[in-house]
Design a protein that fits this description.
Blueprint (H helix, E strand, L loop, with lengths): L8 E5 L10 H8 L14 E5 L6 H8 L1 H4 L3 H20 L9 H12 L10 H22 L27 H4 L16 E2 L1 H11 L18 H14 L3 H5 L15 E6 L10 E6 H24 L10 E6 L4 E5 L5 E5 L5 H4 L2 E5 L2 E4 L16 H14 L9 H23 L5 H4 L2 H16 L4 H8 L1 H4 L3 H8 L5 H4 L9 E2 L11
Parallel strand pairs: 3-11, 6-9
Antiparallel strand pairs: 1-2, 4-5, 6-7, 7-8, 9-10
Helix pairs in contact: 4-6, 8-13, 9-11, 9-14, 14-16, 16-17
């Protein structure tokens, strides 16, 4: 097909229709994207249009295909943004996506990663995601449309060749292509770890409005301070991923037993990465912080939504009539019949549609809500972090910018330190030969953190989440840990690591 240089592609996502569905023109326009009727399964799906409103048929068909329908919404969004940039790059070079070569991809990598004319070059990990999206799209096109570009094949015979080998098993392009196109820094060099003190400083300054000197601000009027503080406390205190913690329902929470500091909760398989649900542990202080949010910000948001009849105007919601034991819910169907479901199987999108009635009024089961009372999706939390980072930067604090996954890394680092220190106390009676038997003991500690993070492979824990400790002298760890059980002080031996941020002002006892 022709590729006019003036064409620019714009990315959109299918939106939910009004409850009345009385806009026939809108219905026809959306339904024409893939020739099928508009249903709830298409809500949120990406599509490309040019400046004249003409659709990109291959892009739209790719995201309507079974290959992408079964992927997580976050993956669909990430791939869509990556492919839009790729398509616009090709348009500017008057190259059809159907005839691209390796040279075009190498040029794209140079522009995306290192070209001084690109005002926003991306990291190696972002480029790796771009490459996965491009690979998936061209592989799909080769198998379904017979478009035999060089990007669709796993058998490489040199730059600029054009052929595909349909008989070969599918292998992702990003893992088999010429090494020149794969970023050498895909293992993120930007990952940072916070010590407990550094996390508290970021939270207090960025969310609670505490000045760097520890003084409270008299004119601090934040939005949803209680909610955001409870959320970040939960991320750091549980080690859950952003999507996992953002998808928790109120019925999945429990108080710790009176004699315990922690309560064991269960992460649902429908929300866990890879579908691997697992136990996780929540400190009493985190539960208390969440309860404060439930009783203040969350309750106020629900009251506002009920007063404005926001919930009554929603479509597709499911009413929960009973929360049973064993993680079972009973839903009411439109015809009045009851439908049992397992909480463990519900995806984040399905959970956002769950409501219950209290005193005859609707309210969501989702724990985390917007100020308007509607469930807060994963992507909205990035705005909370951005606002907090801006406040910390304005306060003049260096190297204290936080992103959601950094809290999971920091959780791992802290609990590794705690595990090592506990082992030191228990092994203090051992002789030198027994103490230096590192392999088994390090395996025990790695496995502890692996369990807490829910990793299927302990090597992920070692190589990514606890990389700073891997480069240390083990004997230094042991010698440092024999005198005191204080994780923040213990972590100061990592001072020379530029990716670990410590709190240099104070070490607070008893904050594990």
């Amino acid at each position: 097909m022709g590729t006019p240089a003036s064409r620019t592609w714009f990315l959109y996502f299918v939106q939910e229709l009004p409850k009345s569905e009385n806009d026939d023109l809108l219905l026809r326009a959306l339904s024409s994207l893939n020739g099928t009727r508009l249903d709830s399964g298409r809500i949120g799906k990406p599509f490309l249009l040019d400046q004249h409103g003409a659709p990109h048929s291959a892009f739209n068909a790719f995201f309507a295909s079974g290959r992408m329908r079964n992927r997580a919404p976050s993956t669909n969004r990430k791939y869509a943004h990556a492919l839009r940039v790729w398509m616009n790059f090709l348009e500017l070079r008057t190259i059809s996506w159907e005839t691209v070569t390796d040279d075009d991809l190498f040029d794209y990598k140079f522009w995306r990663r290192t070209d001084p004319n690109n005002p926003r070059p991306v990291s190696g990990s972002t480029w790796g995601g771009d490459l996965a999206a491009i690979s998936a799209f061209h592989d799909w096109a080769a198998r379904t449309r017979g478009i035999t570009t060089i990007l669709a094949t796993t058998d490489h015979q040199g730059r600029g060749s054009h052929y595909a080998n349909p008989g070969m098993p599918r292998t992702d392009y990003a893992s088999t292509r010429d090494r020149r196109v794969i970023a050498s820094t895909v293992r993120s060099a930007d990952v940072k770890w916070f010590s407990p003190g550094a996390f508290r400083k970021w939270r207090d300054v960025g969310l609670h409005g505490i000045a760097p000197n520890g003084q409270e601000r008299t004119r601090w009027r934040p939005r949803s301070q209680t909610r955001d503080a409870a959320f970040v406390d939960g991320l750091y205190g549980t080690g859950l991923r952003l999507q996992e913690w953002a998808s928790v329902l109120t019925c999945e929470l429990r108080q710790p037993a009176e004699q315990n500091r922690y309560v064991t909760l269960q992460l649902a398989a429908g929300c866990a990465k890879g579908g691997h649900g697992h136990s996780y542990w929540v400190k009493r202080e985190v539960i208390n912080s969440v309860n404060d949010y439930i009783e203040t910000d969350r309750a106020a948001a629900i009251r506002r939504a009920q007063a404005s009849q926001v919930y009554d105007q929603l479509t597709g919601i499911r009413i929960v009539t009973r929360v049973g034991g064993g993680g079972r819910l009973e839903l009411t169907e439109p015809d009045g019949t009851s439908l049992p479901v397992k909480v463990n199987n519900l995806s984040p999108q399905q959970r956002a549609l769950l409501f219950t009635r209290t005193n005859g009024k609707l309210e969501p089961l989702a724990l985390w809500l917007h100020e308007n009372g509607l469930p807060r999706p994963k992507r909205s939390w990035y705005k909370s972090f951005a606002r907090a980072n801006a406040r910390v930067e304005k306060a003049g604090i260096d190297r204290l910018q936080c992103h959601p996954h950094m809290l999971r890394h920091s959780f791992a680092l802290r609990w590794y330190a705690v595990g090592r220190l506990i082992w030191e106390r228990r092994s203090s009676h051992l002789d030198a030969h027994q103490t230096l038997d590192f392999r088994e003991q390090f395996g025990d500690t790695w496995s502890l953190v692996q369990t807490m993070l829910g990793h299927a492979d302990v090597n992920t824990t070692k190589k990514i989440y606890l990389e700073p400790f891997r480069s240390l002298d083990v004997k230094l760890l042991l010698e440092h840990g024999t005198s005191e059980l204080q994780a923040d002080a213990f972590l100061h031996i990592l001072r020379s690591n530029p990716r670990v941020r410590l709190d240099d002002d104070a070490l607070i006892e008893g904050q594990l």
